Amino acid sequence: MLIKPDPGLPRLTRAVSGVDHLGNTQEIRVVEERPLTIYLNAQEIVTAMTIGDYPEYLAVGYLRNQGMLLPDDVITAVEFEEDVETVVVRTKRKTDYEEKLKKKTRTSGCAVGTVFGDMMDGIDAVNLPQTKLRTSWLYALAKQINTMPSLYLEAGAIHGSVLCQGDKPLVYMEDVGRHNAVDKIAGWMVLEGQSAGDKIMYTTGRLTSEMVIKTALMGIPALVSRSGFTAWGVEIARQVNMTLIGRMRGQRFICLSGESRMIRDADLGRVADEPAKSARKGGTK
Amino acid sequence: MLIKPDPGLPRLTRAVSGVDHLGNTQEIRVVEERPLTIYLNAQEIVTAMTIGDYPEYLAVGYLRNQGMLLPDDVITAVEFEEDVETVVVRTKRKTDYEEKLKKKTRTSGCAVGTVFGDMMDGIDAVNLPQTKLRTSWLYALAKQINTMPSLYLEAGAIHGSVLCQGDKPLVYMEDVGRHNAVDKIAGWMVLEGQSAGDKIMYTTGRLTSEMVIKTALMGIPALVSRSGFTAWGVEIARQVNMTLIGRMRGQRFICLSGESRMIRDADLGRVADEPAKSARKGGTK
Predict the structure, then answer these.
(1) Which of A105, A124, A149 is where one domain is finished?
(2) In this structure, are residues A44 and A37 in contact, taking their beta carbons and an 8 Å threshold?
(3) Mean pLDDT of successive 10-residue segments in chain A (285 residues)?
(4) Which of A32, A208, A283 is facing B33, going by the closest CB pair?
(5) Contact call for B234 and A47, based on CB within 8 A
(6) Nearest-by-CA chain B residue for A109
(7) What pLDDT shows up at residue B119?
(8) Tell me, what's the pLDDT at B125?
(9) Are A144 and A220 found together in one domain?
(10) Quick one: pLDDT at residue B114?
(11) Number of domains forming the structure of chain A
(12) What is the pLDDT of residue B99?
C-alpha cells in the first residue's frame, strides 16, 4: 500500500473536552478543519476546508476534477506555503478562468449541499473500459480498509476514499469532505502518472450524482460504497457503463449498474458478516 | 408537529433495481435528486440539487442564510415553476448580488466538500440568548425523531434536520444535502415569522464549522447531532455561546459547549439505550 491514513499525526487532530451524559468530563480526539486556498498560476480559485494533509495532491486533484488543469498540461511547480495556508499550482500553459469562475457560481450548489453545473460537461464523451470486477476483490478490499487504523476509527466525523487495483488498496485518503478525499486521490494519480482504467474507487460516502460524475470523469470504471445512493447517481452510472456497488457491508452489497461485468467468484461461506460493534457506520460516525 | 417527512410521496423516491450479493434481483426505493434554480428578483443565484419538496422554503432559506435576503426585506412573491424547476423570490427592495456572487466563488469550497467564506462574516456580531436546555427534552426529542416514518427509514442516503421547541419537534425536513434540510427550516422560519431564541436544532449530520456558523447566524442557541464534530466546529460554538451536543445515541451524548446552560433533569434509568438493529447510523445509512 502506497499511502495509508496516519491517525497519529498531531497536526490532523486536536483533543477537545466535553461533558458526557453521566456528567463526566471526557477528552476526545477530534479532526481539524483548516482553510486551504488554491491558486492556479496567478489566479485564486477556491478556499477549501480540509484536514490539511497532502495539500499538493488536493490542489492538483481539485483543479483537474474541475477541468481547469487539462490532461496534457505540463505542471511546472506545486508550491505549498504552510504559514499562509496556500497552494500555488503552476503550468506551462497560460491559464485564465475568470469567466469559468463566474459561471460556476451560477450553476453549483455550494452551500446548498451538493454541486452541479460544469460537472455534467463532458460526461457524454466518457467511455469507460469494460473492466471486470471480482466479488472476491470486493470482500478482500472491504476487510483491509475497514480494519486499517484511520482517522475515522480514531476520531470519526470524516470521510474516506480508497483507490484500489484488484484486491489491493493503493491510496487511502481521508478528509472532512468526501470530495476532498477523492480530489486528493485524483491529484496523486496526476502527479504520479497513474492509469485509471484498471482501478476501483472505494468510498465511505453516498453515491450521489456528483460523486458518480467525478469518478467517471477520472476514468475509473468501478465505484464501491458502504453507503446508499440516489436515483440520479444510479442513472448516470448506467449511462457511462460504470460498475456501481452500494450498501457494501459484511457479506451484503447491491450491484446497481454493470452486473454483466461482475465475476461472482467469492465463497460467501468464508466472508464474515460485519460484527455490529466494530462496524463502520454509513458515511461518518 | 407542523411538518413531518412524507416518505410516501411518489415524487420523492423512485424504484431502482439491482442485484444483491446472492445474485437475486432486488427493487429498492431510492431518493431522487433534482436541480432547483433559485432566482432573487431578476438575478439567477444558484442551482441546487434537492429531493424537491418545499422548493419555496428552500429558496427563501438559502437566500436568507447566504445573507442575500435581509431580516427586514419585504418578500412580495415566491414563485415556483415546477416544469422549469425554478423558484423566483421577489422583494420590495431592489437587489443586485453580482459582486457578491463573484466573491463567493473565490472563497467557498464548493466541490471540495465544505463551504467557507462569506459565512464567517457576521459571526462576531452573533449574540445568542442563554436559553437553558433540559436533558429530558433531548431524550424525548431523539425518541420521537428516530421512530417517526421518514425518507431516511424508507430509502436512506439522506440527511434530516428538525427544528424543535422544548420537548417538541416542530418541523422535520430531509434532503440529499444537509444544508438543504437546514435551509428549508430557515425558509419556514422566515415565511412563518418564527422566533429563533427558544428553538433547538437537531441534525443527523456532522457538526462542522459551517453547520455551527449557519445555525448561529439563524439565531438558534442549541445544536444537537447524532454524529461527530470537528475541532473548529466546537471552537466556534464556544465563541458564540451556543450549546453544542454531539454523538447523541440512546443514553449517550457529549456536551461540547454550554455545559452551564444544561439542566440535567432526565432519569437515565428510564432512557432506553438504542437497540443496535433499529439505530440510525451517523449521518446517512
Answers:
(1) A105
(2) yes
(3) 93 95 95 91 86 96 90 96 95 84 42 44 86 97 95 90 98 90 97 97 92 94 96 95 96 97 93 64 42
(4) A208
(5) no
(6) B48
(7) 60
(8) 85
(9) yes
(10) 32
(11) 2
(12) 66
Interface predicted TM-score (ipTM) of this complex, two decimals = 0.86
Q: Is B107 a member of any domain?
A: no
- DSSP string for residues in chain A: --B---TT-GGGEEEEEEEETTS-EEEEEEE--EEEEEEETTEEEEEEEE--S-HHHHHHHHHHHTTSS-TTPPEEEEEEEGGGTEEEEEESS----HHHHHHHHHH--GGGSS--SGGGTTGGG-------EEHHHHHHHHHHHHHS--HHHHH-S-EEEEEEETTEEEEEEEESSHHHHHHHHHHHHHHTT--STT-EEEESS-B-HHHHHHHHHTT--EEEESS-B-HHHHHHHHHTT-EEEEEEETTEEEEEE-GGGEE----GGGSPPPPTTTPPPSB--
Position B108 scores a pLDDT of 33
Whether B57 and chain A come into contact, CB under 8 Å, resolves to no
pLDDT at B109: 33
B65 within some domain: yes
CB proximity B135 to A under 8 Å: yes
> Which chain B residue has the Cα nearest residue A44?
B106
The pLDDT of residue A59? 96
pLDDT at B101: 63
Q: Compute the C-alpha angle A196/A199/A204, nearest 5°.
A: 115
CATH of the domain at A66: 3.10.20.10
Asked whether the beta carbons of residue A105 and residue B105 sit closer than 8 angstroms, the reply is yes
Is residue B117 domain-resident?
no
Domain that holds residue A71: 34-105
What is the total residue count of chain A?
Answer: 285
Q: What integer pLDDT is reported at residue A18 of this predicted model?
A: 97
Q: Do B281 and A283 touch (CB under 8 A)?
A: yes
Whether residue B225 is predicted with pLDDT greater than 60 in this model: the reply is yes
B95 with B137, same domain: the answer is no
